[in-house]
Amino acid sequence: MSKLTNLKELALPGDLIAEGDYNEGKNTYQEENKIYSSMVGLVNQTGKTVNIVAIKGFYMPVIGDLVIGKVVDIRMSGWIVDINAPYSSMLFASDALGRSFNLRRDDMTAFLDLGDLILAKINAYDRTRDPTLSIKEKGLGKIKRGQICEIEPSKIPRIIGRKGSMVTMLKRETDCYITIGQNGLILVSGQKPELEFLAIEAINMIEKDAHTEGLTDRIKEFIKMKKEKMIS
Amino acid sequence: MIDEAGFRFDGRRWDELRPIKFDIGMLEKANGSAYIEWGKNKILVGVFGPREVHPRHLSRVDKAVFRCRYHMAPFSTEERKNPAPSRREIELSKIITEAIEPSVFTELYPRIGIDVYIEVLQSDGGTRCASITATSLALADAGIPIRDLVVACASGKVEGQIVLDLSNMEDQKGEADLPIAIMPRTNEVSLLQMDGNLTEDEFDKAFKLAIEGCRKVYSLQKESLRNKYISLKEAINTEVKSEE
């Protein structure tokens, strides 16, 4: 016999959310054949997996994630980057420059200085080591223009939407480039600062109303209305 | 302390709690926070983390370090309390940490730390129980994964009678004090202290009474956490499917 709490119901830590033939997903834990919530959030289900969409949480690095980080320190072999996670991450100079380097000859600050923002991928991470970053792929590296906005990392999937529907709509309507870091930081860069502000406002709206239905259409209307006002 | 009609000096029956009020998430700078008013006790709790552990050498490679600091404000007592940590505060910091740690998934987050700061603004007996109850709420508010909320309540013996939730005066004049903390889902006891003397029968009765008290506080605790997210509760017919 299998039993599941209503989907989208608010669950508190320790609440029984599913019993029987289910798998434990994010923010849940299993004891025998019972699945309990470990966070305050909404019950969600994908296939046989039951998970909790946390209302508030923090980002845990996952290999392959695209993240936005800030350079906070420079060491002999690379840069220490704050990626909004409990662990500080390292970007090796050999990775960033794509060649061996010599501290005496190379000025590392010329490439990345303290306070610089970077777009990077998580290269390696496990229980025993802090995450390392890579900027080898195309499009990664120092962020030169645009604005950053911060949201709850658990709400990132909502910003992306089903098969990217939400973010595609945002890009089209605001005419901005939007790069989503899995760590809750979003880069918005557009032709005009007003459009960037509009995109950020829309993103904050999505975060606030993440649990409501028909959000994509509402946000679309909102952007259109704001844009009309801008012109007049 | 207890009159002929069975009322205690503050008008409660032997099995009644003092009024309890919670507030959650009112601190801007902390990752999670909670405020509790339990009778005349007023306690503020702030949670920071998960974050890097300082000093570095205290970090553990197999789990997260969970630390609580219990502190009483100089104005929290009748006479000015020296703000420097006293023997009693160090002990309470330790027992509160140990009462709550079993509920936290520390093993999932090696090498990092979770810090809890408990400030007692006003005290009137039973601050350890109120602190544990509020800390658990603050952890839930911070979005730190926990197995269950931890809830604490005391019982004791006053003038030969077993009573629930002792106030400061009852604690001072009474014969025994028995604070316990439980994780209500599994009924695990994570704190059990006894001050004073109880016979075996009295202990059984006091223990059962305190568990009952914990259950009452637990329902209040859950309700307050639920109310905090009432807007989400109202929006039950929502769409979360697209998330994945």
CATH superfamily of chain B: GHMP Kinase, N-terminal domain
Helix content of chain B: 25-40%
Radius of gyration of chain B: 19 Å
Q: Which descriptor suits the 3D outline of chain A?
A: flat
How far apart, in Å, are the first and last alpha carbons of chain B?
60 Å
Name given to the CATH homologous superfamily of the largest domain in chain A:
K Homology domain, type 1
For the termini of chain A, the CA-CA separation is: 61 Å
Please identify, by name, the CATH architecture of chain B: 2-Layer Sandwich
Biggest interface goes to: A-B, 42 and 41 residues
Q: Which oligomeric form is depicted?
A: heterodimer
The helix/strand class of chain A is alpha+beta
**Spatial strand sequence of the major β-sheet of chain A:** 9-10-11-13-12
Architecture blueprint of SSEs:
The complex is a heterodimer of chains A (232) and B (244).
Chain A: E1 3-4, E2 10-11, E3 16-19, E4 23-24, E5 28-31, E6 34-37, E7 41-46, E8 49-54, E9 66-74, E10 78-82, E11 89-92, H1 93-97, H2 108-111, E12 117-126, E13 129-134, E14 141-142, E15 147-150, H3 156-160, H4 165-174, E16 176-180, E17 185-190, H5 193-208, H6 215-231
Helix pairs in contact in A: 4-6, 5-6
Chain B: E1 20-24, E2 32-38, E3 41-52, E4 65-72, H1 87-100, E5 112-122, H2 127-142, E6 151-158, E7 161-164, H3 168-173, E8 176-183, E9 188-192, E10 195-196, H4 200-228, H5 230-234
Parallel strand pairs in B: 4-5
Antiparallel strand pairs in B: 1-2, 2-3, 3-5, 6-7, 6-8, 8-9, 8-10
Helix pairs in contact in B: 1-2, 2-4
Keywords:
heterodimer, A: 232 residues, alpha+beta, OB fold (Dihydrolipoamide Acetyltransferase, E2P), Ribosomal Protein S8, Chain: A, domain 1, 3 domains, 5-stranded mixed beta barrel, 4-stranded antiparallel sheet, 17 strands, B: 244 residues, Ribosomal Protein S5, domain 2, 5-stranded mixed sheet, 5-stranded antiparallel sheet, 5 helices, globular, disordered C terminus
How would you describe the overall organization of this protein?
The complex is a heterodimer of chains A (232) and B (244). By secondary structure, chain A is α+β, with helices and mostly antiparallel strands. In chain A, 25% of the residues lie in helices and 35% in strands. Chain A has 6 helices and 17 strands. In chain A, the strands form 4 sheets. In chain A, strands 9-10-11-13-12 form a 5-stranded mixed beta barrel. In chain A, α4 (165-174) runs parallel beside α6 and α5 (193-208) packs antiparallel against α6 (215-231). The longest helix of chain A has 17 residues, at 215-231. Chain B has helices spanning 87-100, 127-142, 168-173, 200-228, 230-234; strands spanning 20-24, 32-38, 41-52, 65-72, 112-122, 151-158, 161-164, 176-183, 188-192, 195-196. In chain B, β2 (32-38) and β3 (41-52) form a beta hairpin. The longest helix of chain B has 29 residues, at 200-228. The chains are: A alpha+beta (232), B alpha+beta (244). Chain A binds chain B through residues 6-10, 12-14, 27, 29, 36, 38-40, 42, 44, 46, 53-58, 60, 86-88, 127-128, 130, 154, 157-158, 161-162, 165-166, 211-215, and chain B through 31-32, 49-52, 61, 103, 105, 109-112, 140-143, 145-149, 183-185, 222, 225-226, 229, 232-233, 235-244.
